[in-house]
Amino acid sequence: MTPLLAVNNLKVSYPTRTGVVEAVRGVSFSLQKERLAIVGESGSGKSQTGRAIMGLTPKHGVVTADTLDFNGIDLLKASDKERRQLRGKRIAMVLQDPKYSLDPVMTIGRQICETLRTHESISRSEARDRALAMLEAVQIRDPKRVFDLHPHEVSGGMGQRAMIAMMLIAGPELLIADEPTSALDVTVQLDVLRIMDRLVSERGMGLIFVSHDLRLVSSFCDRVLVMYAGKVVEELKASELKNAQHPYTRGLLNCMPQIGESRHPLPVLDRKPEWAA
């Protein structure tokens, strides 16, 4: 079966005054219509991998790959116009922090409608109705009020939900979710996960779920990629995460809190140079 997304030997580097920084080093994976988690510490290359797929790597960054194919489209050879047509409509990305991802001078409703009307020829009133329905779908209690607010007028959790609504409004085939539930309380987190789960199962959407929460991805996702220092060090079924073999993955699992267990001193990762080789 032809994968929805095929990534082979993806590399992202940044030239600096002191040399080249390799943020992503030879990442390879394929994605079907499933939920794929990418986990690892901050700085391991998770978000950089997602941004490279989206074509959002800063201009001074260098992206190379043997294969970077989305549903038959070579993303490395796609023009800027083709990229803009893909982003939002067929590939969408929920970024980490709505404070920096949402336009501060536009109302939330206008931003969601703009995303929809960029890709579909519909009236303003129809766009407004669909935007309100999507805000309600991500558990915003008073969507009409929030529709007319600016990002600075809502809480971090509500801003995150508005960002998710904006990314889902056009019904993408591939959603890259970068810590999409980090600012949400547990009950709303579960609601948002149910929405994403429904999109994968009903619309046949592929999901790349970037997270630090190992317990969450083990129950929500189908497969897990574990990244360290820009490389994938282990790939396994999410349901088998607790049986991981790589010492880095075992170290991450060991650092998780254990209810009813006193841990003094707190465990730390005993890093090995060969992990980054």
Q: What do these coordinates show?
A:
Strands 7-8-9-3-10-11 form a six-stranded mixed β-sheet, with helices on both faces. Strands 1, 2, 4, 5 and 6 form a five-stranded antiparallel β-sheet that branches. With 277 residues, it is of the alpha/beta class. It starts with a strand and ends in a 23-residue tail after the last helix. It has a domain at 1-82 and 221-271: 3-Layer(aba) Sandwich (Rossmann fold). It contains ten helices and eleven strands.
Helix vs. strand class: alpha/beta
**Strands ordered across the widest β-sheet:** 7-8-9-3-10-11
**CATH fold group of the domain at 1-82 and 221-271:** Rossmann fold
Radius of gyration: 19 Å
Shape: globular
**Total beta strands:** 11
- Mean pLDDT score, rounded? 89
In N-to-C order, the SSE pattern is EEEHEEEHEHHHHHEHEHEEH
The biggest beta sheet is recorded as: 6 strands, mixed
CATH class division of the domain at 1-82 and 221-271: Alpha Beta
Please give the alpha-carbon distance between the first and last residues. Answer: 32 Å
Layout of helices and strands, plus pairs?
Layout: E1 5-16, E2 19-31, E3 35-39, H1 46-54, E4 62-64, E5 67-70, E6 73-74, H2 80-86, E7 91-94, H3 98-101, H4 108-119, H5 124-137, H6 143-147, H7 156-168, E8 174-178, H8 186-203, E9 206-211, H9 214-220, E10 223-228, E11 231-237, H10 247-254
Parallel strand pairs: 3-9, 3-10, 7-8, 8-9
Antiparallel strand pairs: 1-2, 1-4, 1-5, 5-6, 10-11
Helix pairs in contact: 4-5, 4-7, 5-7
